[in-house]
Amino acid sequence: MPDETRKEGRASHGFATLAGVLIAFLLLAAGYVLYQAMHVLFPQNVYETALPAVISDTVDADGVLLFDESYVAGSGNLGYLAADGERVSAGTAVAEIYNNASQATLRQQLTQLNDQIDLLQRSQNTAALQLDSLLKERAGALYDLLDTLDDGDYEAVDDDSNAYQLAQNKLWVVTGDAANFTDQITALVQQAQSVQAQLGSPTQIAAPQTGYFVRASGSGRLNAGADDILALSAQELQGYLDSDPVIALDGCAGKIVAGFTWRYVGVCSAKQGEKLLGQDGKPLRSAVEMSFPGRMENGLKATVAEVSMDADSGLARFVLTCNSINGDVLCLNRAAARILGRGAQRPAGACSSGALSEGGRDRGRDTGRELCSRRLRQAWQHRALLPDRPGGCRPSADHRRRLHPCFARRDRGFGQQGEAL
Fold first, then answer.
1. Chain segment 336-354, per-residue pLDDT in tens
2. In the chain, what is the straight-line distance between the N-terminal and C-terminal CA atoms, in Å?
3. Cα→Cα distances 84→61, 93, 138, 146, Å
4. Contact between residue 389 and residue 178 where contact means Cβ atoms under 8 Å apart
5. Any idea what DSSP says for residue 103?
């Protein structure tokens, strides 16, 4: 009996030890899980998106833009044949004079017809194209159109829509949905000839020299010459800017800017002007970036040509030279500028290096797919996104689902609205 009692005691002691070890292990596991949960639910470190910008190196200034420009004489009821910033050769028609308002409408119709004819003619050039490349081309054109709508750049919708329609037409030719567009082209040519006969031959205004054309309706000119402005001191330049120096292009159809080099003559506080100087007290040798808030947000590279300080007035006068132009810049005369000097970086907007901004074109295709449904709603509000199929009908819902991943999602999510197309 004593031996059996001792054996039972040892056995119960062994079970108690094992139970203790098991309980301790479970407590440790529970403690670890609780510790991790506390860190997840109540993080000690707070992370925020960092925007790469050096505010101290940003210069805000007011000034004027000096171009090598000449003026195109012309007045009356004008219709423009060239866009702002379009490069034209000497003798090219940039505008025409209408006798009545109906001619302007006829010119618009004729332009649209010619654009459709050109689009259909290019749509038939599919001999060397493969199906997979056409699918990629159409997808790229679709996302470009959606990006344009999302950016609110409605002036570019027509170009992006035409690019999408061109890709879709080529796909129809390759897949056999349309043999060619000869009949449509013939009908459009007949319409264009009829409209041209009604339009007649309005008096045209030609460019006097080669350069970049700017319409009179979208720009003006300074009331002083470039040499006179460059001769002004900082205080005199400030007074000139306060005198409202921009006047209308009366009696002109527009102006021609020769070359792509232009200058910005600006004035700012002396403290900010120091940011345009190097450590040796001379103008910065490195390029700066210049934009015009509210009028042209995209920065252009420029070099600092000269900087002069006026200790009495506390102002600084400077001249920047830029070798890049676009239609937005060419329309400016006097404008407030923002200059990013040495060490400054353009703010990244609402995204860091690891994120993609919904508002810009730098986002990936996956982000575009996530936004597809919302953007397609916008597309339908401004223009039918899908072009007419040959014969005047639109693709069926089944055809859209087979060829368009986004349209398949649209058909499921929007119901009858999708079928209305």
1. 999 987 554 444 443 333 3
2. 96
3. 25, 14, 29, 25
4. yes
5. H
